[in-house]
Please model this.
Amino acid sequence: MSTLLQIRNLNVAYGGIQAVRELNLEVGEGEMVCLIGANGAGKTSMLKAISGLLPASGGSIHFEGQTISGLPPHVIAQRGLTLVPEGRGIFPRMSVAENLLMGAYYRRDGAIRQDNDRIYALLPRLAERQHQVAGLLSGGEQQMLALGRAMMARPRMLLLDEPSMGLAPLMVQAVFEIIKEIAARGVSIFLIEQNAHLALKTCSRGYVMENGSITLTDMAPALAANPAVRHAYLGE
Model:
């Protein structure tokens, strides 16, 4: 398995506050990898640095063997690395169909309509509501829309920031089934998730982040069985 995303000694700072410290991780092609940690650990700051929304103050980020550190977000997305942000980030006054097309804003190929049809087949709720204003969707439907919009960019890897946040349990399960189906279609997944039990159950490998640094990494079943992880993140 070849490495798709590689991060070495990453540092991210807000003014004088160090949010990410000497962080190292990697995600292989076709992998589902999760990152768990407490609120304020630096997880979202790391994702924003990977996707170009925050400048790194040190270290390197490589995607498909090429340096992407310092590139603007739209160029990183064009290279196949797409962020689904915390809070979903849909365009609430636009229709579902218009939101999906925004995911293909930089594409100039002739397969956009075909991909759009595939998204509707994967997410039939969106097909039913394609003419509806996106801001009127339920939270779970908005998360589906954010995933569908990201898939319209034809990503090699999705960066998912807290996809279960604010969703009812049944909708969380539905969203994670969609994520697993996306992975089955060959898209690599790097998942940040507060629901550590669900994240470790879904992914094959995981990292634990504390105070801006990676403190543990292992296969997901081993992390789920680790007493420190069980005490800190699994409520035991």
